[in-house]
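Notes to self after the Tuesday call (sharing in case useful).
The group wants a holo model before anyone commits to mutagenesis around the pocket. I volunteered. Ligand is GLP. Logging inputs and output together so the record is complete.
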Amino acid sequence: MRIIKAKDYEDMSKKAANIIASQVIMKPGAVLGLATGSTPIGTYKQLIKKYNNGDLDFSQVTTVNLDEYKGLAKDHDQSYYYFMHQNLFDHINIKPERTFLPDGTQADSDNACADYDRIIAEVGGVDLQLLGIGHNGHIGFNEPGSVFEKDTHCVDLTEKTIQANKRFFASADDVPKQAYTMGIRTIMMARKILLVASGEEKAEIIKEAFFGPVTPAVQASILQLRKHVILVADEAALSQVK
Ligand code: GLP
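Result:
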C-alpha cells in the first residue's frame, strides 16, 4: 500500500487524476473502475482538463462503475448513470457503449447482478479501480458487516448511508433503500486500486480502515491486504494518522 499526501482537495484531485491518466497513457484500452460520491468530482474535472488540453485520449477506454441505486431511472438526476454523464462521460471522447454501470432499472436483482459480473469478465477485468470511502468505511455500497467474498449483489442501505446521501435528495424518504454494488471480491480483483479521501470528516475512518484491524465491520480495511493500493488523501483526511 502507498499513501500519497495531498495538501488539499484540489491537490488530491490533481494527484489522483495523474495516476488515472498514467494508466490510460500506459494502456490506451484500459478498463477503469469508477466511483461516484462528491470526492471524485474534482478528479473527474482534472481528467476533463487533460482531455481538453489534448493530453488524454479516452477513445479506447472502457469503464465499469462500482454501484447504482436500485429503482432510479437512468435520467433521474440522482442516478449514478446521470452523475457519470454529468461529471465525466459527456465531456470526454469515451464511447458511450464502452461505459457500464449496474442496471438500476432491472427489478430482478439476481439477473441485474449476474449481468454486471458477466460484463466485468467480458471486458477483461478492471485495470485501475477508483474508490471513495463512506463515513462507516463502506466502499461501493458494501456496508459494515457484509461478508468479503461477494461479487456484485443487491444491498439494503444502512440508515447512516441514507442520512449521508439525503443531502442529494428532496428528503431522506426519497433516498432509495437498495442499491446494486460490486462486492468486495469484485473490487479486490482489480489489478490496481486508488482510493481518494478528503476532509476532516474522513480522518477517523481513514485511520480505522488503513491502520486498524482488517474486519468486515470496516469494509475498506480489506484493502490493507493488497499491495497495489494507493491512498491519495489530503492533510485533513490524514490528520489522525501519525
Ligand atoms: C456513496 C457511494 C460511495 C462513496 C461514498 C462517499 O455512498 N456509493 O462509492 O465512496 O458515497 O461519498 P463522498 O465522497 O460524497 O463522501
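Two things stood out.
The pocket of GLP is lined by residues 35-39, 66-67, 132-134, 140-141, 161, 165 (CB under 6 Å).
The CA atoms of residues 6 and 234 lie 4 Å apart.
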